[in-house]
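User: Design a sequence. Structure:
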């Protein structure tokens, strides 16, 4: 059975920049809209099949939640679906927002 790895915000950034990792954000819609990592995919029960169909299993995946706890279960699930390299980011989006830029969905 495939396993996921836990990584820091700095290592997640390296994976995104160097290995073209895809970021999936599993937080609720309102939290995602108010701030998320640029180009991240909002992964919900409703968008899961779309993500699996459009993402190559060889693509590294970084799973982000609020504080790095819920993302571990989601990362394990994605690893079990066949993704070869899956990470859960320690500290979640809250750790990212304290260290790095993020984007919001503006509805102006």
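Assistant: Done.
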């Amino acid at each position: 059975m495939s396993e996921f790895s836990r990584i820091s915000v700095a290592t997640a950034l390296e994976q995104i920049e160097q290995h073209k990792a895809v970021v999936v954000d599993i937080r609720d819609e309102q939290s995602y809209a108010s701030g998320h990592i640029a180009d991240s995919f909002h992964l919900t029960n409703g968008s899961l099949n779309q993500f699996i169909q459009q993402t190559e299993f060889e693509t590294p995946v970084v799973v982000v939640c609020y504080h790095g706890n819920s993302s571990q279960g989601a990362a394990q699930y994605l690893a079990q679906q066949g993704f070869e390299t899956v990470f859960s980011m320690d500290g979640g989006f809250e750790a990212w927002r304290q260290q790095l830029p993020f984007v919001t969905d503006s509805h102006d």
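The mean pLDDT is 94. The beta strands are 5-7, 22-25, 41-42, 61-64, 86-89.
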